[in-house]
Design a protein that fits this description.
- The structure holds two protein chains of two kinds.
- Helices cover about 45% and strands about 25% of the residues of chain A.
- By secondary structure, chain A is α/β, with parallel strands linked by helices.
- Chain A folds into two domains: about 1-110 and about 310-373, P-loop containing nucleotide triphosphate hydrolases (Rossmann fold), CATH 3.40.50; about 120-310, Glutathione S-transferase Yfyf (Class Pi), Chain A, domain 2, CATH 1.20.1050.90.
- In chain A, a hairpin with a 4-residue loop joins strand 5 (about 80-85) and strand 6.
- Chain A is globular, with a radius of gyration of 22 Å.
- Chain A starts with a strand and ends with a strand.
- The relative contact order of chain A is 0.17.
- In chain B, strands 4-3-5-6 form a four-stranded parallel sheet.
- In chain B, strand 3, helix 5 (about 90-100) and strand 4 form a beta-alpha-beta unit.
- The chains are: A alpha/beta, B alpha/beta.
- The interface of A and B includes residues 143, 145 and 160 of A.
Chain lengths: ~375, ~200
């Protein structure tokens, strides 16, 4: 799958027609000109949401009714049109190959993306929420309904939180209500936990191999899912059907302790990924350079896993990452990209950051207009 | 541009734009259409709306829409007393089930789904009235037909718990492969559910 053309209409500050190179596409411009918006358009088309916070309706240019992203995606010589419109109210509509009301999964048949932004470089050292987001994004990329499941879970967490507060501060809700929410919460949590653990089983060996290849020190990477729900760690539970009843019982047991703050203390929302290099916690013992390298490798491993699963590489979106990487690591990334024939869209403020040979195209982005030679 | 319109029409546009799926622009189109159609059409619409406001109320027993003073037609019909109650979220669901003609029991319309965050608890759903009916009407089966969304599922879970305590048999509408649908285009969530709930054939 390769992006062939794009026509962006009223998407943030952009209105532009683009023709992509099948290799590396470099969007150059000063800050605030709209470089990242190009990548964002691809992200929204492929995953239904932006990598930035905010409402979907924010994507629409000021005083316009809707933003539109029309993509031509090439596979085996055939170009499939994928059109995504977002209204001011945040309504998303998609069509694939002329078929209206397409789902995210329909789009995923033609377009998958892996996004890599500056925050991802802090993956190793940063907060657990960043690592959870990394994991969730990767899983949702494989399996779009996972994202819906997560959102449903988030809502149930807030509902339980409200009930717990009522419990703690004087107006206890009926037991059956609490139990009903906990049952639903546990069903969602069990699915999410199971999918995370299964994903890591597939992903970890690939990541380990890539880290071995990439680092001079040839250190072993070990990825462990650190769950607040101990049976996953201690007994290696994997299947949702096994996790559900135990999780539910534990929810009931934590009720009293969770009540005053209205926060649920176990579940996917508090878990973490533990990354060890050569047996030592990368977060503490790896140098900053090693940590960044590891972050890059973890992303590249995601590309590799995609290839293994779907037979094609996704489109790689690199937002503002180059300036943060030293030349050696940047070159390593590009050598993978060209070796695997991964179509890449990247943004940078300076052309000098880009050192690569092979098929590439430079785009100049200024004031929402995009030009290329 | 709407500011140049007479105040009364502006007000009409504002009222119309509260309807689902109607934005400002569409509301203006409707309003101008009504104005163009002239006096009789306008008054006809107005009196239809007034009539609804004055005569439509909720059934005492199932909370469906009715013009009857006490029970709605379905609740008043002794032939519908087959010992089954179907619980739905909205009145539109009653219409859908009735037009399919497959259910010969009575309904209970919740109008809302549980949500502690929105402050919607069992009282808002008139659950006490439901429980009273289950006891009084010798109900043998309660069919849960709430939507298959997070709120719909949680509400169904809650209802099944309290109804089980009352000793009624509780069933839930199946979800899975739609009739005439192909497996290939089914989303994963629906497919998973359909697969889990498969039955002997």
């Amino acid at each position: 799958m390769k992006l062939f053309t794009a026509h962006l209409v009223d998407f943030r500050n952009l209105s532009a027609r683009l023709e992509f190179s099948p290799g590396v596409n470099i969007f150059v411009g000063r800050n605030g000109q709209g470089k990242s918006n190009v990548l964002e358009a691809m992200h929204v088309a492929a995953l239904g949401a932006s990598f930035r916070p905010g409402r979907l309706g924010d994507l629409v240019r000021f005083e316009r009714p809707a933003a539109r992203v029309e993509l031509g995606i090439e596979e085996a010589g055939i170009v499939t049109p994928v059109v995504v419109t977002v209204s001011l109210a945040g309504q998303r509509q998609m069509s694939v190959g002329g078929r209206e009301n397409a789902s995210l999964e329909d789009v995923a048949q033609h377009l998958r993306v892996v996004f890599f932004g500056p925050e991802d470089l802090h993956l190793v050292k940063g907060s657990p929420s960043g690592r959870r987001a990394f994991l969730d994004q990767a899983i949702a990329g494989h399996h779009p309904p996972y994202g819906d499941r997560l959102r449903g879970y988030g809502k149930l967490l807030r509902e339980r939180g409200q009930l717990l507060k009522e419990l703690a501060y004087g107006s206890p809700p009926p037991t059956e209500i609490l139990e009903s929410y906990e049952e639903q919460l546990a069903r969602h949590a069990a699915q999410i936990l199971s999918q995370r653990v299964k994903f890591l089983r597939e992903y970890s060996p690939l990541a380990r191999q890539l880290v071995l290849d990439h680092t001079d020190s040839r250190l072993e990477l070990e990825i462990t899912y650190q769950s607040s729900f101990l049976p996953i760690v201690e007994e290696g539970l994997v299947e949702a059907a096994d996790i559900y009843p135990r999780f539910r019982r534990q929810l009931a047991e934590t009720r009293a302790a969770d009540a005053p703050a209205g926060r649920t203390s176990i579940g996917p929302q508090v878990d973490d990924l533990e990354l060890k290099l050569g047996g030592r916690l990368a977060r503490f013992f790896a140098s900053q350079g090693e940590q960044r390298q590891l972050a890059v490798s973890l992303k590249i491993a995601q590309l590799a896993l995609w290839k293994e699963r779907f037979g094609v590489h996704p489109v790689l979106l690199l937002d503002d990452v180059l300036s943060e990487l030293d030349p050696v690591r940047a070159r390593l990334l590009f050598s993978r990209v060209s070796q695997w024939d991964v179509q890449t869209l990247l943004t940078t403020t300076s052309r000098e950051d880009v050192v690569l040979e092979g098929d590439c195209r430079f785009f100049d982005v200024e004031g929402g207009e995009v030009k290329w030679e | 541009m709407a500011e140049t319109l007479p105040r009364t029409i502006q007000r009409l546009i504002k009222v119309l734009s509260k309807l689902p799926g109607v934005g400002n622009r569409t509301a203006m189109r409707y309003a101008l259409h009504l104005v163009r159609a002239g006096g009789e059409t306008l008054l006809e619409v107005a009196s239809a709306v007034t009539d609804v406001a004055q005569s439509v109320r909720l059934c005492d027993r199932c909370f469906a829409l009715t013009e009857n003073p006490g029970a709605c037609d379905i609740c008043a019909d002794p032939r519908r007393a087959d010992g089954r109650i179907c619980i739905v979220e909205g009145f539109g669901d009653v219409i859908a089930l009735e037009s399919a003609g497959l259910f010969n029991g009575r309904y209970f319309v919740l109008h809302k789904l549980l949500s502690p965050l929105k402050g919607i608890g069992p009282e808002e759903l008139h659950i006490d009235r439901l429980m009273a009916r289950v006891k009084a009407e010798q109900i043998v089966e309660v069919v849960l037909a709430t939507p298959s969304t997070t709120d719909g599922e949680t509400t169904a879970t809650y209802l099944s718990r309290i109804l089980a305590k009352a000793g009624a048999r509780v069933t839930r509408l199946a979800s899975g492969v739609p009739v005439g649908g192909s497996i290939e285009y089914l989303d994963h969530m629906t497919l998973t559910r359909a697969f889990q709930d498969r039955k002997d054939f």
